[in-house]
């Protein structure tokens, strides 16, 4: 099954050339299933708060914040009223 635009795997070639590295936020999980990404995008468009989305997806809110940055950079979500806090009750 081919990857959809904006949903894919990237290889960090610079990492291969480094020794003595520090991996920021190593305790967090930045891997996502395609279904989780679609769920996130739907909830984002509904205006849900990032903490509510994290609770529904059973993820750390910081993981969702990074996903939001990624999806915005890919053009899959747009800025919204309330930013990460959303606007829906």
Low-pLDDT runs of 5+ residues are none
Average pLDDT works out at 85
- What characteristic shape results from the CA principal axes? elongated
Oligomer: single chain
State the distance separating the first and last CA atoms: 37 Å
The percent range for strand residues is under 5%
Which class do the helix and strand fractions yield?
A: mainly alpha
Cα-based radius of gyration, to the nearest Å: 15 Å
Helix content: 40-55%
The tally of strands reads 0
Number of helices, where a helix is a run of at least 4 consecutive DSSP H or I residues: 4
Task: Please outline the major beta sheet.
Answer: none
Order of helices and strands: HHHH
Outline the structure in words.
This protein has about 90 residues and is mainly α. About 10% of the residues are buried. The protein has helices at about 15, 35-45, 50-55, 60-75.
Topology readout:
Blueprint: H1 13-16, H2 34-45, H3 50-57, H4 61-73
